[in-house]
Design goal:
By secondary structure, the protein is an all-alpha fold. The protein is built from three helices and no strands.
Amino acid sequence: MYREGWRLQRDHFWTADMSKIDWQEVYERYLPLVDRIATRSEFSDLMWEMQGELGTSHAYEFGGDHRQPPRYELGLLGAILFMMPQ
């Protein structure tokens, strides 16, 4: 997944010179971190950091099989008011 994400950026980035970034060097710098990844979320973080090296606001990581956090229903605050006869 790491190599494929890197390759897709290389092949489809908006400018062929990768904004003067040595993209191969970026690949090699982040590659050792792949062995330390334990969750899909950590992989997403790595991809965000790697693509952040391009210094553009048009490089994203999204999708995948992320675990959904638990949903907790919120309690409703309220009061029952009784009118006291006068």
